[in-house]
Amino acid sequence: MNTLIRTTLLNGTAERNIRTVMNIMRSMLKGAGVPKNLWTEAVIAACYIENRFTSSSKSTPHKLWFGTKPDVSGLRIYGCTAFVHVPKEKRKGLDDQSEEYIPIGYASGNIYRLLTKKTRKLIISRDVKFGESLLGFCNFMNKVNSLYIYDDPIEDVKEPTSKKPAFKMAK
Questions:
Q1: Contact 29, 42 (CB under 8 A)
Q2: Any bridge partners for residue 129, and if so which?
Q3: Which of 50, 101, 112, 151 has the least CB density, counted as fewest CB within 10 Å?
Q4: Centroid of chain to Cα 3
Q5: Phi and psi (nearest 5°) for 54?
Q6: What order do you get walking across the sheet with 98-108 strand by strand?
Q7: Which helix (H) or strand (E) holds 130?
Q8: Nearest Cα to Cα of residue 37 among 120, 136, 101, 138
Q9: 84-91 CB contacts, 8 Å cutoff, 24+ apart
Q10: pLDDT, tens digit, 9 for 90 and up, residues 9-62
Q11: Pseudo-torsion of CA 155, 158, 162, 163, nearest 10°?
């Protein structure tokens, strides 16, 4: 069935689903402080999450499609800090055993799509530990902003008064 241009009312279900995914994506990006240029990864993650929750038919889309209850144990807070294990073959003597990443999506099950903080490259890994109390991009930006040193004098600091406090000697 063809629809007229700019008549979203005729596409009811499809438009509502798109709006739902876009609202989830927008909330994920804003809540985690993730840059807007990662919106495609956020849409994929939003669809992954949306398919694992109850729809109007009192069942999840995942269960209707595959016939099994979805596993939600692998869901993590979007944009939190993640630590990926570095295999022994890729490290030397005193190198770190893990590197800091930011989870930006799900590959499948307990396999995650992660963004490196140093090089901004995407990797896929299952050997991940999460620090869900730390939001990755927010902490990263705070670290960057704290590197700047300001030479300007602070104007809000009041000069100490010349009056000395009066102390009375106890007898």
A1: yes
A2: 83
A3: 151
A4: 37
A5: -60, 135
A6: 122-125, 111-116, 98-108, 80-85, 128-135
A7: strand 128-135
A8: 120
A9: 84/114, 84/123, 84/125, 84/127, 84/128, 85/125, 85/127, 85/128, 85/129
A10: 677 777 888 888 899 899 888 888 888 888 888 999 998 888 777 666 677 877
A11: 170
Q: In this structure, what token pair is assigned to residue 13?
A: 């279900």
Q: How far apart (Å, rounded) are the C-alpha atoms in residues 107 and 112?
A: 5
For the chain, which residues make up each domain, given as ranges? 8-145
Residue in this structure with the two tokens 């499809």, named with its chain if needed: 14
Could you count the other beta carbons within 10 Å of the beta carbon of residue 161?
A: 7
Structure tokens at 44: 């994929």
- Six-digit token pair at 128? 């991940």
Question: Tokens standing for 28?
Answer: 């994920």
**Joined tokens for residue 163:** 């009056």
- Sequence-ordered list of residues with C-beta below 8 angstroms from that of 119, at least 6 positions apart, any chain: none
Asked whether 13 and 55 are in contact (CB, 8 A), the reply is: no
pTM of this structure: 0.65
d(CA 16, CA 155): 53
The length of the chain is 171
